[in-house]
Specification:
alpha+beta; GMP Synthetase, Chain A, domain 3; Ribosomal protein S3 C-terminal domain; three-stranded mixed beta sheet; 7 strands; about 25% strand
């Protein structure tokens, strides 16, 4: 029973630390964290878009973060390593957070989703899917969903473990909206194809919208057809 309790407590600490880092490091572009416990130290590897801002001047920010993790979560001798995100458009957490910020800023939803999907495919993904669920209409409207898909995206079997997925909740004034981004990384499936994946026309020619907009008035987009 003691062994089982140890495993449960260890998993619980990992979850709490991961949740804490996700909320604490949102402004520096938090993407992923890996926690490895050894008899001597606990190695915490964090992937962020802006590592310099996270480390801080003379390493002060990262030192405060290390002390907080040790004191609040009881982690033994935490050692934090910071890794910069190589390709922001291939990280579902960062893409979903970008879409969420646009929703909270009342920007047009459909162009935002299509442009984000285009950037993912241009970055070299084999496939991607973006699903937005919630009150996409004005206050009092029913919950709806918008879904855009491009490329190759497996839906069942052990192969789906290789997909990269993230969920972020946007909180505009008219209700919470969930943004889910799923990416099929090319490096995980080198045997699938070496050719460039075709992109649907409406995604291929998507353009970013920098001006204002009203996300409340967006209608759900038609489901895009996957390219096998």
């Amino acid at each position: 029973m003691a062994v089982e309790r140890t495993f449960i407590e260890d998993a619980l600490v990992r979850y709490k630390v991961s949740s804490f880092l996700r909320s604490k490091l949102e402004r520096v572009g938090f993407s992923n964290v890996t926690i490895q416990r050894t008899p001597m130290v606990t190695r915490i590897t964090i992937e962020v878009a802006n590592p310099g801002r996270m480390i801080g001047k003379h390493g002060r920010s990262i030192k405060r973060l290390t002390d907080t993790i040790a004191q609040e979560f009881g982690v033994t001798e935490p050692q934090i390593a910071v890794i910069p995100v190589e390709n922001i458009d291939m990280e579902p957490m960062l893409v979903a957070r970008f879409i969420a910020r646009r929703i909270e800023s009342d920007k047009p939803l459909r162009p935002t989703v299509h442009m984000a999907l285009k950037k993912i495919m241009d970055a070299g993904a084999l496939g991607a899917e973006i699903i937005v669920r919630g009150k996409l209409a004005a206050k009092g409207g029913k919950a709806r969903s918008m879904k855009a898909v491009a490329g190759w995206l497996p839906k069942a079997g052990d192969i789906i473990r290789k997909l990269k997925k993230a969920d972020v909740v946007a909180r505009p004034k008219y209700g919470a909206i969930n943004v889910r981004v799923t990416i099929t990384p090319k490096e995980a499936f080198p045997e699938i194809t070496k050719e460039k994946v075709a992109i649907p026309v409406e995604i291929k020619y998507a353009e970013d919208v920098e001006g204002g907009g009203d996300a409340k008035r967006e209608e759900p987009a038609a489901k895009e057809v996957k390219k096998e």
